């Protein structure tokens, strides 16, 4: 399971580098999380998760503060959480999570991105059963055995602990996200290379070289949509 995470994050970080797209999406996500509870991460666990994720993507403080100030004010934009599922080239599976204030805009845009790039939308549940909702938290400077000792000391159950490209990645149940982080903090670690709640595929499919460009075009088209927050898939390329 773990061997793919750093590859995924590295590609996404490279694509998002020096653009405002990822910051705008985080701005919406922070606003929505803050509006659902208190605009204080210490009393709003959902907001705390988003802020931890934003930190690992180097979202500027000004973006975060603007979203929090908006949530504290009188603004009342209504957003809906939506999930779309579909299929890409070579039997690949794709999950699209969106936050939207206009469902009539989002659904056709997602469907069009699939249809124009060799994919097709599926019904709810057609893909997600092949993915597991997972907390992923990573650090540097420790071994997997040392991290396991930290988790045992804090009595935190995890699914897996894997060393990947100089980092140690902990995979856990989503409701253990904060517990894993607190175990690290109790050991004096407060910087994370990864802090995500994500959907990891149970199995990967390989995309042959002649289909890679089409698949990447599909993912890019989905990620570029204004309302789309996250895109998950089960693809690995032949050269990985």
TrEMBL record:
Q: Is-annotated flag, keyword Ribosomal protein?
A: no
Q: Which residues form the TACO1/YebC-like second and third domain?
A: 79-235
One GO cellular component assignment for this chain's record is:
cytosol
Q: Enumerate the SUPFAM superfamilies for this protein.
A: YebC-like
UniProt cross-references to InterPro entries, sorted A to Z = Integrase-like_N (IPR017856), TACO1_YebC-like_2nd/3rd_dom (IPR048300), TACO1_YebC_N (IPR049083), Transcrip_reg_TACO1-like (IPR002876), Transcrip_reg_TACO1-like_dom3 (IPR026564), Transcrip_reg_TACO1_YeeN (IPR026562), YebC-like (IPR029072)
Query: Subcellular localization, per the record?
Result: Cytoplasm
Name the chain's protein.
Probable transcriptional regulatory protein SAMN04488542_101138
